[in-house]
Amino acid sequence: MDLSNRGALITGGKRIGGVVAEQLARGGADVALVYRSSHGEAEDAAAAVRGYGRKAVVMQADLRDPDACARVVDQTVDALGRLDILVNMASAYRSVAFDDLTIEDWNEPLEVDLRAAWLCTQAAVPYMRRLRGGRIVNISDWVAASGRPRYPRYLPYYVAKRAVMALTEALAPELAGDQILVNAIAPGPIVAPEGTSDREFRAVE
User: Fold this and answer.
1) What is the pLDDT of residue 99?
2) Less Cβ crowding at N or C end of the chain, within 10 Å?
3) Phi, psi for 149 (deg, rounded to 5)
4) Distance CA 7, CA 33 (A)
5) What's the CA gap between 21 and 137, in Å, rounded?
């Protein structure tokens, strides 16, 4: 896709989100970033986008709230004038022992990683149809993509990221007729799980 003058929304404005925002801006896209608590990182990413002469907007939202998903999509279009690219990157990543898991612990990754990706997609598709196409990228996880969970204490996170892959597979044929391509990316480790030894970290690298 030619990125010139495209509009992109990234849910999750820190670490990978900031790098993706900068690369999209480098290609000529305007970028909206959503954060829940990482305001400073999101603003840094927006500054990098503006450094390429592109528009940037930063929005605070808790995507566990279904209404917030539609709101950030609408605000992106209001600010940028269009929405061509949606990157569903928001994620809940916490270490919790199996015996300590609560309903809230279970629900949070499913609400943030999975349900928000679906709801943001649902809100974005009408705007993309008006443009006769678009791109949706869902962020999974390298361990989930392997189908071999290797780190204890991340049960809900792993399940959510596996489900993100299933969502992507199911959305692709649903939206293909609208020229909206849906893909998933499963990045390697960005933040090592608690207790990872130096030896294991090197092996993963």
Assistant:
1) 97
2) C
3) -60, 130
4) 11
5) 13
End-to-end CA distance of the chain: 30
Can you list the residues of the chain whose pLDDT is less than 70? Answer: none
What six digits make up the tokens of 203? 């092996």
Distance CA 194, CA 152 (A): 10
> Count of alpha carbons within 13 Å of 37, Cβ hemisphere only?
2
Q: Tell me how far apart the alpha carbons of residues 204 and 201 are, in angstroms, rounded to a whole number.
A: 5
Which residues, other chains included, contact 36 with Cβ-Cβ below 8 Å and sequence gap of 6+? 60, 61, 62, 63, 90
Q: What is the rounded CA–CA span in Å between residue 2 and residue 108?
A: 35
Active-site residue list? 154
Neighbouring-strand partners of residue 184: 138
Question: Cα separation of 205 and 202, whole Å?
Answer: 5
Chain segment 61-103, per-residue pLDDT in tens: 999 999 999 999 999 999 999 999 999 999 999 999 999 999 9
